[in-house]
UniProtKB/TrEMBL annotation:
Full protein name: Gnk2-homologous domain-containing protein
Secretion signal span: 1-23
Domain of life (superkingdom): Eukaryota
Family under the similarity heading: Belongs to the cysteine-rich repeat secretory protein family. Plasmodesmata-located proteins (PDLD) subfamily.
Keyword Repeat: yes
Amino acid sequence: MNVSHCTILLSLTFFLFLPSSKPLSDYTTLVYKTCATQTFNHPLSQTLDSLFQQLIAQSFQHKFFRTTEAGSDDTVISGLFQCRDDISKEECFSCVSLLPQMSNTLCSDSISARVQLDGCYFRYETEEATGELRSNGLLHKECGNPVVEYGNFKELMKEAFATLESGILNSNGFYTVNYKSVKIMAQCERDSETCDCSNCVSDAVVVAKEECGSSLWAQIYIDKCFISYGINTVPGARRNGNTEKLAAIIVGGIAAVFLGFALLSMVSSRFRKDDYE
């Protein structure tokens, strides 16, 4: 029993010293939602449900789909969904399947809505709401922790953004690259023209530079595209490490306590063995 107890304590100590890894992004996490303030003046829930079912059915085969649905009173609702190109079709289907319920919860009865998850998004609008949620500017942004000392950070990001803008021109509207220590990605709405896509990504880059210029990661969403990036290490720069240092001290202290208990248990076990001898 004593040996088993020591083994458990030593195992716990070992796992405490393992480096912690950043959790993987969950493609079903809500990023943002935008709901029109105006609500339906007449019941369109059945038409909207039918539109949702079309989108879900298509998401098993496609990562982008646009359609319209006409109601009994000839009111037309248009809608589309798009998944990130770097997730599987199964993940795309799972992601899109969540959107109708989220829309009903977050934007109940709105004449237009847009719900963005990490791995997919959809939007719908009635004829009377066409363009209400459209914008050539910023829809949503998230900026990560800043670097404390710039070092070569600014030059690194300048090069990474240039690589992204060049790469999106020769893509089908999705481009991702690991540039040195930067993982950077861009995606445009699938039916965007190449020139429009490129301009949209360039606009998003400008926003990233202006709004998240010193951030170690960021997500920028514009009406027809989004960009995101994350940095592991920056030559000549350092993170704001107060929180990380405190966590390391706490973990180290806990590990030391476990290790002490393990050693005491082993010594106690040895003494008891000697007594029996």
